[in-house]
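Dear colleague,

Thank you for sharing your sequence with our group. We've completed the structure prediction you requested, and as agreed, I am returning the results in plain text so they can be pasted directly into your records. Please verify that the sequence below matches your submission; if there's any discrepancy, let me know and we will rerun it promptly.
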Amino acid sequence: MLRCFSLLLICALVLCWSCHASQQHVCLVMLTNPPVVHLFDNSLSERTHIYLPSQFSPIEYAAYLVSTHDTLLASTFSSGTYKKLYSYTHLVNGFSAFLTAQQADILYQKEEVVLVERDTKLSIQTTYTPSYLGLPGGAWQEEGGAINAGEGIVIGILDTGIDPTHPSFSANTLKPYPKPDRFQGSCEVAPEFPEGSCNKKLVGAQHFAKAAIASGEFNATFDFASPFDGDGHGTHTASTAAGNNGVEVIVDGLSFGFASGMAPRAHIAVYKALYRGVGGFIADVVAAIEQAVKDKVDILSLSIGPNGPPPGIATYFNIFDMTMLSANKAGVFVVQAAGNAGPSHQSILSFSPWICSVAASVHDRTYPNTLILGNNKTVEGIGLASGTPGNNMHNLILASDALKGDGSTLPDANDCQDPSLFKVDMVQGKVIICSYTIDYIFGGESVNKVVSAVQNLSAVGMVMVVTADFEGELTIPLIPFPIPAIIIPTTEGTKTLLDYYNGASNDTATVRITGSAKAKFGHEAPKVAKFSSRGPDPQNDDFRAADVLKPNIMAPGHMIWAGWSSVGIDSSAYQGQKFAMISGTSMATPHIAGIAALIMKKNPQLSPAALASALATTAFTVDEHGEPLLAQNPSNDTSIELGPATPFDFGGGAVNATATLDPGLVFDAGYEDYVKFLCTIPGASNVVQNATGVTCADPSSPSVAATDLNLPSITIANLTSLRIVPRVVTSIAVAPETYKVTIVEPRGVLIAIKPMEFTIASNSTQELSVTITPAESDGKPSFGHFLLSGSNGHRAHVPISIVAQSS
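Please find the predicted structure tokens below.
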């Protein structure tokens, strides 16, 4: 019976590989003894299955664990029949190895083995956003300006690496960088990552590729066995979190302003475990997380996630999420992308309550580009480009009308991929119309080839029009062009242009492109991006749904300018550029990592849970007019193009970067609280005991509910009768404050809170009792909140998400 599982299955399940029993794959194995971070901490009161010679130091204990891994493998299998890749000792006790299905099954039978998982892949999921989020006049100002914002905080970026030559990571700034006090990481040296690549800004850089190499998918020619970024994604996320302030963004010779990370004075440590064309493997990612925590990073930014939710009794019992639980226990704030599987309900790809899961919003910056026709009509388009020279109109020509010969053998001459097919004299000095087909989206055709062709033909500019197979409006990447250019992204706009061209006589059709190098700002509230994954936590086979709100917070993730690797190909439109504009929850995540560094700088005493609370309770849920924030295709009705967002779309709301620094109250939780939460999951007690070393409460003891976890939200997926939910707030304000409670009840639910008013001193706690009673039951999610309003101006907003069911 085979028990080496696909990504994120727990050991209570049996899943057979669809492969021959003798074929080897990378497996991750978790063992019963605790890892270093659990054992050398006095906060745990009960542990089991521990053998520890009393004289061991943490380093000696880690070596002891490695020896047990080696002994287990050597005593179970013949030499040469397996290959160990990593030993994990700091955050989880286990190893990864290249094993056959039969070997995996044999290992699972061992008493000391808790989990066996087959390794699979994880996927990788700015100039203006600092101003949009109010940082220059708010959070930065409170820390003494951009020149101090986040200084001394180390953000670990787990991604595709970094381009150390990028000016966003230079230490040659107006104010010298100090050496971070706690950080203990190192900097690898390689031909493409030479000595001196690290500095006091980029303080560490390492790579992890053993599983990628073992898979046979790693290509050293372009994946680079070093921290160097061959993709672009890692450089982008690192510069978003903590890139230097005031770096000019120049793409194709056009200036798009000056870039800054959210915490421009924070330090960056890079842990490369993702590769272009490969993605990432859990074995490499767990090794990278372990190293980052051992190096004592303060924050860990993970713009990665699985391709779907794991089956099993809960989404939490897997080596990846358990590793992040241990990182949380070590005091590291872990931020993870919510996923790009939206807008479907329960599409979230970041699950655990000890992780801050980040949704993506659309902000209000646009780059309008307009085509003015000779008949005075206008057609709106996109594309980062300059306009045609001056205010003159220029003759227009359709590519297929400038072909050599009749072009009868060419299936689509308008694709403009080959300049040798056209008559130069017919195109020179004109604006040429080329087609933008589905093939550009899937890589079959290249925009760069079109640009080269237009330049070779001496055209003054180009218009790209979508073909009929798009069947209406298409979301096309905002592509930079080194020539005057515009893409018409709708079939309606294409028809307007071609009707004008076809209705004009020879050489009388003229146009002018206005250009789009200058941004326009709409001063609008953020909207949840269509692609952003939605909550709540997904259903599982044996567990109806977790009473945990996901995502937790929202940040800008659409059309984000940030640094780019000099050889990055993640977006072909930005090859060879120093900056790129791309979208995804991957882009939203480092915004939160950087803002977390600002909070940590001002409030170094906050635990990861308290820090997450500060982000969530201060977030915006309404715009400046008091209207609810909107979502593209909201999860409660994805058929609506734009409608009111809910906590399942944005968690606590859109991040309020300045308010997070002074939240007044926080909802705190620690490792033991998370273990108690795990113990509430039916059938999970043995897994909890083996994975954490903590014994769940005796069955005869008073029961607890998953909702008892002290989160800055309340989510009940199956409310059938009265439920009392406890919460505890802690004051981190400098002075006593009196708070009043106001309640907005979800539809069909009655809520009472005791007390409705209280005064709390600094560093003190206050218990709250929230009584929730179903009044109606339609089986659909309904949403409300309670608000704690303080006499000194602090406000804590707590979302409530309920699904009332018939009893």
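Summary note from our side: DSSP finds 19 helices and 40 strands in the chain.

Kind regards,
the structure core
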